[in-house]
Amino acid sequence: MFKTVKITHSLSRKVMSIFLVAITAVMFSSAAMSVQSLRGDSALDNKANKIVKHKVNTVEGGIKRNFKLQPPLIPHTTDKYQISLKNNGCMKCHSEKAYKKEKAPKVGDSHYIDRDGKTLEHVSSRRYFCTQCHATQIKDNPLVENTYEGI
Q1: Cα dihedral sign, 134-140-143-144
Q2: How far apart are CA 96 and CA 123, in angstroms?
Q3: Residue 112 — φ and ψ, nearest 5°?
Q4: What's the average model confidence in pLDDT over 111-119?
Q5: Is the pLDDT confidence value at 62 over 80?
Q6: For 47-78, b where at least 16 C-beta lie within 10 A, e where not — what string?
Q7: Which phi and psi angles does 102 have, rounded to 5°?
Q8: Worst-scoring range by mean pLDDT, 39-48, 82-91, 125-134?
Q9: How far apart are CA 128 and CA 86, in angstroms?
Q10: How far apart, in Å, are the Cα atoms of 46 and each of 35, 42, 92?
Q11: Cα(45)–Cα(48) distance, rounded to whole angstroms?
C-alpha cells in the first residue's frame, strides 16, 4: 500500500543545506526590514540630509578635560583641513616651527615617539591622523541628558 522511499545521505545533506539557507535568508530579510535610523521612519533624501552649520565652541585656553589622559578637544572647525599621507592641515599651526607664531598649542612630545620608544624629528605615523583622537566641539544642545561628572 505505502511505498518506502530511501533517501541517500548526499541527498539529505543537500535538502538540509537548502533548508538552512532559506531560513537564514528569511531571518536576515525580516531583520533588515525592522531597522530604523535615529531620525525615525523618514526617508533619507537630500532635503533630510542638509548640513547644519554649528557654532564652534571656541574657549580661551582650551576645553576642560573630563578624564585623565583625555586627548585635548579641538575648539575650532576642522572640516576644511586635509589630513592625508602627504599633508596634515593641523601641522600648519601646531607644528614645532609654527605654534609660537600662530599662538596655538604645540603637538605633544608624545606624538614624536615611535612604538619602539625612539624619539623622532617628525610626528610619528601612529599619531599623524589627529582626528582619530581629537574631536571638534560645537555649541549645541545635547541630544540626550548627560549626568557624567569628570575629574
Answers
A1: positive
A2: 10
A3: -100, 10
A4: 94
A5: no
A6: eeeeeeeeebeeeeeeeeeeeeeeeebbbeeb
A7: -85, -5
A8: 39-48
A9: 11
A10: 20, 12, 34
A11: 5
- Output the nine-digit C-alpha cell for 75: 575648539
pLDDT at 48: 44
Given a cut of 60, is residue 45 above it in pLDDT? no
Name the residue ranges covered by the structural domains of the chain.
Answer: 7-34, 53-141
The 3-state DSSP class for residue 14 equals helix
> How many CB atoms sit inside 10 A of residue 124's CB?
15
CATH class of the domain defined by 53-141: mainly alpha
All cell numbers assigned to 63: 576645553
**Taking the mean position of all CA atoms in its chain, how far away is CA 75?**
19
Distance from chain centroid for Cα 127: 16
d(CA 22, CA 123) in angstroms, rounded, equals 53
Which residues make Cβ contacts (< 8 Å) with residue 109, sequence separation at least 6?
Answer: none
pTM to 2 decimal places: 0.56
pLDDT of residue 39: 58
